[in-house]
Each structure stands twice: as C-alpha cells, then as structure tokens.
Amino acid sequence: MPEVQFGGKTFTVDEDGFIDSYANWSQEWVQYVKTQEGIEELNDEHKMLIKVLREYYEKNGIAPMVRVLSKVTGFKLKHIYELFPSGPGKGACKMAGLPKPTGCV
C-alpha cells in the first residue's frame, strides 16, 4: 500500500488515498486531507461533520447515507459540498478516517 508523509507522521493509504485503518486517524491526518481538499481553514461546521461521521461509524461500522448525514447535521447536500468540495464520501469520510464508502454516502 502507498504511504504519505505529513506533519512528521507516515500514513498508509489505499489506492484512493483513504487511510488504512480507522485507528490510525489523527489531527495530522485531518490537516493532510484538508490540504488535499483545498480547504483553507476548518470551521465548526467541518469539525461537526467529522465528529458526526466518526460517531456514526463507531456505532454502526459504516458511513451514513447522505440523507442520514443531512438529517443529523441539518446541512443540505449542497452545503456539505461547499464544506467538502469532493463530497461527503471522498472528502468528508476520508478526512474523518473512515474507509472508502461502498455505496452512496
């Protein structure tokens, strides 16, 4: 598996750039994905979305579907794309340290 280095840490990633293990998630990973996403600064909405994704994954073992994510956060899909330009699956789930979603996030 490929590796990326950022913030003094080395992360093993899959072919799509998702971290190899949920347990390896860290703030350095968040900062790395932030740069990859082209996000200037993480605001409270970014942080809330990451927290919701991580809590849902810990409870259910999968990423939530988009409509569930929208319902829990109160964010419309358009706003989630404004926060994470590559979308809830590729950007938000990646930043939250979740595995690549298999279905519609």
Distance between the termini: 24 Å
Oligomer: single chain
Let me know the number of strands: 2
Structural class, by secondary structure, is: mainly alpha
For this entry, give a set of tags.
105 residues, mainly alpha, Arc Repressor Mutant, subunit A, two-stranded antiparallel ribbon, 5 helices, 2 strands
Architecture overview:
The chain has 105 residues and is mostly helical. The chain has one domain: Arc Repressor Mutant, subunit A (Orthogonal Bundle), CATH 1.10.10. Helices cover 50% and strands 8% of the residues. Strand 1 and strand 2 form a beta hairpin. The longest helix has 17 residues. The chain is globular and about 35 Å long.
Describe the protein's topology.
Blueprint: E1 3-6, E2 9-12, H1 27-37, H2 44-60, H3 66-73, H4 77-83, H5 87-95
Antiparallel strand pairs: 1-2
